[in-house]
UniProtKB/TrEMBL annotation:
It is found in: Cell membrane. This is Sodium/glucose cotransporter. Signal peptide: none annotated. It comes from Stieleria magnilauensis. The lineage of its organism: Bacteria, Pseudomonadati, Planctomycetota, Planctomycetia, Pirellulales. Belongs to the sodium:solute symporter (SSF) (TC 2.A.21) family. Its main location: membrane. The chain crosses the membrane at residues 6-27, 77-94, 115-139, 159-182, 189-207, 247-269, 290-311, 331-350, 387-406, 413-433, 439-459, 608-626, 687-708.
Amino acid sequence: MTWIDYVVVAVYFIVMIAIGLWAMGRVKGQEDYFMGGRGFGKLLQTFAAFGAGTGAHEPIQVGRTGWTSGLSGVWSALMWLFVTPVYWITAVWYRRMRHLTLGDWFVERYESKALGAAYAVFAIIFYMFYLSTMLSAIAKFAVPLMGLDEIAGLDLKYVLIPGLAAIVIVYGVLGGLTAAYWTDLIQGIFIILLSVLLIPYGLWALVKEFGDPSTQGFMDGFTIMHERVSSDYFSLFAGPSAGEFPLQYIVALTLLALVGIVVQPHFIATGGGSAKSENEARIGLVVGNFLKRLCTVGWAITALIALALLAGRPELAVDPDLVWGIAAREILGPLNLGLVGLMLACLMAAMMSSADTYMIVSSALITRNLYAAYVNPSATDRESVKVARVTGLAIIVGASIVAITMADVFAQFTFAIELPILFAAPFWIGMFWRRANGTAVWITIAFSALFFFILPLVIPMVSPEMRTDPAWTTTTNRIVKSIKRTATPADVARHEAWVEAMEQAKDDETMRQKIGAEPPRCEVGDQIEVVLISGDTSIFWSGGVKPVGEESLQMISTVQDGAASILTQRRTGQLQGEGTFKLDFVLYHYIGIDLANVSKATLETLRLPTRVLLPFLVLIVASFLTPRTSESVLDRYYAKMKTEVDPDPETDRRNLEESYSNPKRFEDRRLFPGTDIEALRPRKSDVYGFAISVAVCFVVIALLVWLAGIGS
């Protein structure tokens, strides 16, 4: 980075702080601070949903999986695509709740202040880990952009993470959700720039490096990209990693995401709760998330360009996570136009647009569901806003500490994504079924916490011998697939990069293991044998298994499948399990399902039945065995959820009073009148909006395939 890049970043920070100071004067009470007075229209709702839903780790993640898996790696972020149409329905729920937090919803629906407090605690832990992944990603990927890994003798992350946290704290704590939404509008534009900026410059870099700039334009970069990279890297559902993202895995990821996303705490705001009306809520949430899906298309194309341009980089042979940063440095740096600084600002925007909203939502939960519920129930609006500003600061500080002290970004992200299992079933079932009650919810939360989080950690502590027991250290079979094809320039460059990386790491055994096996040594046009190794995945241990002493591989079978030769092997020797114990897979073990021949993706898919179905089953059974919630509370709650929101607060209040006085006024619209199921018949707007959203999903996929196919 040069001085002009640092100027770009500094100007960006100054604008963010100025917006916070401006919004501070608009905060009069809790609804202003936590929900911006519920006055946001389509534009701000769209960019709020877009900004809060787009993290700094995602373009980096697509860069990495694109480098290792080709176009199919886009599913590491595009797995949310088919969840998006459901947002057309759920946005209405969040607006009709008329609450400031999802904790308030649990209090109302289940008559339990304690459930609201438990949800607030969940939100604190969730955001500390979820935000920490973004802070860690920024720190890691700023290294190649800034050209340094320390400042004043300190590791870069010890300077950058607190600095970013301080900026978010200043404008978010001062201005509340209004500041967050206006900064999200600006940051959303930056994220879109981030998603497309590298494509034209990257294509032109390909032409300058490997083509003839005097006769070729930047669009010829697509042709060069296909000439340099093997065709198997351009398949959307199968790539060089031989099924890292097969169809069943994509479906499982979509369902898991759908079940858990609805209870992520920020959805009460960005999901529609802060909008003027239901229409603004729906359009903002759906359009904002489709904007993100389109940006994901840009990230995928950028990853393919990087594959063609940077295959010879030894740094990427060691750590593919650096793809995005190195691509930005090598493509934009020589122009000296401040574009490297702009790219860094864009990555910061992707993080900060999420962090500000998460901070406000977390502070709302702490203020309303902990402080006002248990510490000071008579707190005024002014006092509550003061508490919110202090607690919002604490969330960002906590996330910064996690980011600095935890080195495993993926572990932070995985833990955060799995936490919503605790509250997902109570939300979905409570939304539609009157029989669900607070006692049953506590039983479900206790079961989920024990089964998915506590026992997997405690069991190996109580019985450490399990880590070396052959019954629990089994792995899937190792599959060695050999494919013969013509070598491309990228294959030649990859081997050269591997040789250079191994030379640089000759005295570092850990680094040499990270680099992996030697790619084929070749010249362009040679017939090479590409060896793809998959399987050999621990079935019962989250951290995999490692050998204890000598180990060997036992041959199982050899199969010829067209041009590919497939060798199946099994590890022998004593192994030791690492990480936590996958208790849910014990169920498959005892019902006799042999998992030895399944792929890693199938193992991940098999988490779906236990993590989705078991909490729902426990809640349903427990609800039948425990007392109902009082009918008057249920009548009032479901009457409210059926009453359409009017943008005018006074009219909306009168409509609600009418519904409360006559809870049966919507009986003729129920799908199952006279039962405990409170689902309404869908309106035309529900059906048409959902159908159009599904169609747009396929348009996004078609656009991605078309762009990737240009020049082939």
